[in-house]
């Protein structure tokens, strides 16, 4: 008996020692997972706004499947191109692709396009929690419906600086009835034809086009059918009294939007994967490529439903508002709210949009302090030009065009003939250029030259807006940087003053983002570290503007990039090298 007690006592001591050891050692709750997806991309006839047209789908869906993951997970997407007459590539918007620049999904920059019938494997790690997107990055396919959401949660046991009961995602989009081919031909022809206003606005892939307008009185019901369940308003069901995190993203081809929920305030808590010092809005302004998280509380009269609406801002558009329903359980989700949908803000109220941009600061406790100074300053003047009779968008009077051999491959393999070795200018004629006048810009050129950045240096980017070819007109441009986040140091009206405006930079708590607007006749100042080896696009996220040349490419640390997979090759100087 004594021996048994002694033995049990030793076991208890061992268990106690093990318990104390485990309590002192940090043991991860769950190891990072591999999340495997198999997608088929193809055209299908769909009626997202009641008008029947060809839509690019993923596994039959548009928007495509939502990628759900935790920080540190590896995502593998096997993408089969069943478009048959088109190439394709998909960009993982907001994912920095650290160590995997070949999976960025930017045709002409990081990979050759995926040809019809081929299957391509994207593999990358989602290294930060937050709200992100994926979308086509070949030609103008994004506006044909090839897009979706990426939602990355914190690892188990970690918490965010805000609380909520449920998590939801909504993608906002604008929608055209013409095909991307028609748009591309119109934009690139000597007889220039602008894409015009979108026919409708979609909320989570659903909208409502008026099939009986005066301009389209004879549409056959097979072409436009208002009773088609495909175009019934999107309904998001909420339980009274609960708080919802609503991840709102814009993937528009052209439009800047306002988003509002009838009778409900929204508290902004996240932007592009970074926590925001919370602030309350009634209208949330979004520019193409931006993502936000807002908190809403279902604290209104539970006996009815409420409108969720989107409106075009920054352009005097003819596009009608987008409508969806905030459905209070147990009301029927198809039950229309009793009130008229709330009117959106004035389309030309620049001040309110600028105020929201200025209000977005990093959350206390989650501030990533920027370097106090930069090693290089690049000022990017956004201009509209005529080059060889073609209407083009340009940066510093240089209009971007893709090379036949992707930059990542050409740089890594030292294929100097693959693109123009002359870098674009770091600025423009600051003294004499009048941003308020219709430009002459007779010296505009087309080039595929790139900016070479010294690895691990700090770079300031100043986006300067100006007048277009039309008198008294300046357009809002959302700029997106691949492979990096940047600090947003400031916004301003008028021409950037290189001597005085930097003194106003926010170096205390600037938000980090990957997409940011430059407002009409204004400037936006950004700072980033060129610390991710590769070749990375930086471009206007308006589909037609990038197609017309509004973008640049940065290269840094190419010698630190690992061996390139042969699957990204097969075009330009790499014909015959491709291995699926």
Could you please describe the fold and organization of this structure?
Residues 41-153, 169-330, 436-556 form the Plastocyanin-like domain. Its cofactor is Cu cation. This is L-ascorbate oxidase. Keywords: Copper, Disulfide bond, Glycoprotein, Metal-binding, Oxidoreductase, Repeat, Secreted, Signal. It is an enzyme of class 1 (oxidoreductase). The protein is mainly beta and 580 residues long. It is built from five helices and 32 strands. It has helices spanning 2-24, 180-188, 350-359, 407-412, 543-547; strands at residues 34-46, 53-58, 67-70, 74-81, 90-93, 119-125, 130-136, 147-153, 166-175, 200-203, 235-238, 243-250, 256-261, 266-271, 274-281, 284-286, 291-297, 306-313, 322-328, 376-387, 390-395, 398-400, 445-447, 451-452, 458-464, 477-481, 486-493, 512-513, 515-518, 522-529, 534-540, 551-556. The chain has a six-stranded mixed β-sheet, with no helix packed on it. Strand 14 and strand 15 (274-281) form a beta hairpin. The longest helix is centred in the N-terminal third of the chain and has 23 residues, at 2-24. The radius of gyration is 25 Å and the shape is globular. Residues 1-8 and 10-29 have low confidence and may be disordered.
């Amino acid at each position: 008996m004594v021996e048994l007690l002694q033995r049990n006592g030793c076991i208890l001591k061992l268990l106690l020692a093990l318990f104390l050891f485990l309590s002192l050692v940090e043991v991860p709750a769950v190891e990072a997972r591999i999340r495997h997806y198999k997608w088929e991309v193809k055209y299908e006839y769909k009626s997202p706004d009641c008008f029947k047209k060809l839509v690019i789908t993923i596994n039959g869906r548009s928007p495509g499947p939502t990628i759900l993951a935790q920080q540190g997970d590896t995502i593998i997407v096997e993408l089969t191109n069943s478009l048959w007459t088109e190439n394709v590539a998909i960009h993982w918007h907001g994912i920095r692709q650290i160590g995997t620049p070949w999976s960025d999904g930017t045709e002409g920059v990081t990979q050759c396009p995926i040809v019809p019938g081929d299957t391509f494997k994207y593999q990358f790690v989602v290294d930060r929690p937050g709200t992100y997107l994926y979308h086509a990055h070949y030609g103008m396919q994004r506006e044909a419906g090839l897009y979706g959401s990426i939602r990355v949660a914190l690892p188990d046991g970690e918490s965010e600086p805000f609380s909520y009961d449920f998590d939801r995602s909504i993608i906002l989009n604008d929608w055209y009835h013409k095909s991307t081919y028609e748009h591309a031909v119109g934009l690139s022809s000597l007889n220039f034809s602008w894409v015009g206003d979108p026919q409708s606005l979609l909320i989570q892939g659903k909208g409502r086009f008026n099939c009986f307008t005066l301009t389209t009185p004879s549409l056959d019901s097979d072409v436009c059918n208002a009773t088609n369940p495909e175009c019934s308003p999107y309904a998001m069901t909420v339980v009274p009294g609960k708080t919802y995190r609503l991840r709102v993203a814009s993937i528009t081809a052209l439009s800047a939007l306002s988003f509002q929920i009838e009778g409900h305030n929204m508290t902004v808590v996240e932007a592009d994967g970074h926590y925001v010092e919370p602030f309350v809005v009634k209208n949330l302004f979004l520019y193409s490529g931006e993502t936000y998280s807002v908190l809403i509380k279902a604290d209104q009269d539970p006996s009815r439903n409420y409108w969720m609406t989107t409106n075009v801002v920054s352009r005097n558009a003819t596009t009608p508002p987008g409508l969806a329903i905030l459905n209070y359980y147990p009301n029927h989700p198809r039950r229309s709210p009793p009130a008229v949908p709330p009117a959106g803000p004035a389309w030309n109220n620049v001040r309110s949009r600028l105020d929201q941009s200025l209000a977005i600061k990093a959350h206390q406790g989650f501030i990533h302090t920027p370097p106090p100074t930069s090693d290089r300053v690049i000022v990017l003047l956004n201009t509209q030009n005529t080059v060889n009779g073609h209407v083009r968008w340009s940066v510093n009077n240089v209009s971007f065009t893709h090379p036949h051999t992707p930059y990542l491959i050409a740089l890594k393999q030292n294929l100097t003939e693959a693109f123009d070795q002359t870098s674009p200018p770091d600025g423009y004629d600051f003294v004499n250029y009048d941003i308020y006048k219709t430009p002459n810009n007779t010296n505009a050129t087309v080039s595929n030259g790139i900016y070479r950045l010294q690895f691990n240096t700090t770079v300031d980017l100043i986006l300067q807006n100006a007048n277009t070819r039309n008198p008294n007109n300046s357009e809002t441009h959302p700029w997106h940087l691949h492979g990096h986040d940047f600090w947003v140091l400031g916004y301003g009206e008028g021409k950037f003053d290189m001597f005085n405006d930097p003194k106003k930079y926010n170096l205390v708590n600037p938000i980090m983002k990957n997409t940011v607007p430059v407002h009409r006749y204004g400037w936006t100042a950004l700072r980033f570290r060129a610390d991710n080896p590769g070749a990375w696009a930086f471009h206007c996220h308006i589909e037609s503007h990038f197609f017309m040349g509004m973008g640049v490419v940065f290269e840094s640390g190419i010698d630190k990039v690992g061996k390139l997979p042969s699957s990204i090759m097969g075009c330009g100087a790499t014909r015959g090298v491709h291995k699926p």
